[in-house]
């Protein structure tokens, strides 16, 4: 199954987003990356004997299948950068995620989107303003993107939902690690009227460095 190879490529030690993209650009498919000879892999900028060894140690079918089962256990699904539903704006950045994990629906109308993010310790006025702004934008047909964090992000999602509009919550964690925990109910509401989106594998905990970034920018 092709998806297994995509998922396995995500867990190769020493191969980050930019190098993964270089490998896909060079070999055009993750299965061909795993099937490539050592000298072919070393011809890709950034690959070293150490990263080649790490790649060759993985059984892509077994590893990918295990990850895929974890994704489905979260109630989620995934799409690759070659999927026509993949957000076009995200595809155009220098190191786009090769795989996106999601719960909810991916729709073409989400190309008309705007991100609202802000302080987790916002003032009452700031929270109220974010909610009203999101409400108005969602009413006008824009998809509101935010990070499901406390404060401004939370109110942005709530405003879009109250307008019966679409909203996307970009997680800095795996789909199964909703943070903050008090937003779990909000996350479920988002899946009914939009999408929870993550570039991180199931089980990835929330950290400061994995907050709203590439997927939501």
Question: Could you explain the architecture of this structure?
Answer:
It is built from 10 helices and 6 strands, in the order ααααααβαββαβαβαβ. The longest helix has 16 residues, at 124-139. Mean pLDDT is 92; it is low at 212-217. The chain has a 6-stranded mixed β-sheet with strand order 1-2-6-5-4-3. Strand 3 (113-115), helix 8 and strand 4 (143-146) form a beta-alpha-beta unit. The chain has 217 residues and is an alpha/beta fold. It has helices spanning 2-9, 17-27, 30-35, 38-42, 49-56, 60-73, 88-91, 124-139, 152-162, 184-193, and strands spanning 77-80, 99-104, 113-115, 143-146, 167-170, 194-198. Helix 1 (2-9) crosses helix 6 (60-73) and helix 8 runs parallel beside helix 9. The chain folds into 2 domains: 2-73, DNA polymerase, domain 1 (Orthogonal Bundle), CATH 1.10.150; 104-210, Rossmann fold.
